Amino acid sequence: MPSPVRPGLTVTTALTIPRAELTERFSRSSGPGGQGVNTTDSRVELSWDVARSAVLSDAQRRRLMERLADRLVDGVLTAVASEHREQRRNRDAAARRLRALVADALAPPPRTRRPTRATRGSQERRLSAKKQRSATKQLRSSKPRRED
């Protein structure tokens, strides 16, 4: 995952989080593991201090703080992984989660939808289909139809 040219966690082509800004914590994981489950610290918490990061511009920091507000604790974003039995695989999973969270939060907002009107043809087709359906159901009725 870390490259020799650009050490750190690459989020986008323009943003790489330096390894020095990432904090890893290990603890015992619940779940599968057999006899080793009580002795190995395979659960990984990968944390990044968004509020104090040196690699973010002010606009990026504002956007991350706004979009990740419910996930931040004192400006720190944390990704946890414990689904694998091996610490290395959990480290990779936590890094992927953190990368995805930051990339999604930094992505520009979607374009606003411009409301459109239904065409005359589509309205006519919809109404004729409704009339056809009504006629089909009338034929199923046990009451005789009233002729006007």
Automatic annotation (TrEMBL):
Stretches the record annotates as Disordered: 23-43, 101-148
UniProt keywords, alphabetically: Hydrolase
EC number(s) stated in the UniProt entry for this protein: 3.1.1.29
A Pfam family matched in the record: RF-1
All residue ranges annotated as the Prokaryotic-type class I peptide chain release factors domain in the record: 15-140
Entry GO MF terms: peptidyl-tRNA hydrolase activity
InterPro entries given in the database record: Pep_chain_release_fac_I (IPR000352), Pep_chain_release_fac_I_sf (IPR045853)
Ranges annotated as spanning the membrane: none
NCBIfam families named among the record's database cross-references: PRK09256.1
Family classification: Belongs to the prokaryotic/mitochondrial release factor family.
The protein's name in its UniProt record: Alternative ribosome rescue aminoacyl-tRNA hydrolase ArfB
Designated gene of the protein: arfB
